[in-house]
Amino acid sequence: MKSKNLVSLSVATVFAVLSITGLLIYFGQGSHLVEHTHAWFGVLFVAAAIFHIVNNWASIKGYSTDKKTGGIRRELIVASVVALLFLGGIAADLPGFKALPNGGKALFGKKRGPGGPEGRPGPPNGQRGEGPEGPDGERGMGAEQAVLTKTAIDSIARQMVAQHLAANAQTIRFDTTAALGHNVILAQGTATPAKPGSAKFRFTQVITLADHQWKVAAKQTAPL
Prior knowledge:
Helix content is 47%, strand content 20%.
């Protein structure tokens, strides 16, 4: 088995998979599986490309320099100029380069539904805001966070805290539930242990939205 053949076929196979997953992500059809496949095959592509360059270094050198004069070939200059033009256009955020990245999602991306913006599920039980001011009349969350009303924040906080403290606490009382950011909720309160004779304790939990699910990112308890 020839190493050059193996490396070339590996690069071609990995590139084919990356092309498919890349197009799916570009057109807004990505999912957890698609994004993870794209990331891992990106790692494989880098590894295969390194081996490909090492095994074909003599050929690459021959394409880049003229054996007779020792100078640089025009092909290498053209390839370098094209790469620099694209890098410069992307870095400067020129109009053509600015519109291209989001063009696919604008045409075929997932539409914004009642659950909230794309890639961001709404609160449980179908609760959602109706503007900068939620149904309970509370402000302070901003238009971008209108999907999370005060009622929704309370519901998410109670659900997540109950899941983590239900086994050790008989009663749970909330003192504070608030949104710290777009996808971050703070919950504070006190809990009474189910075990007789145990002292009450205060809890603080930071809840974040990750992979379209609310999860407890950090928590702290202290006896009263």
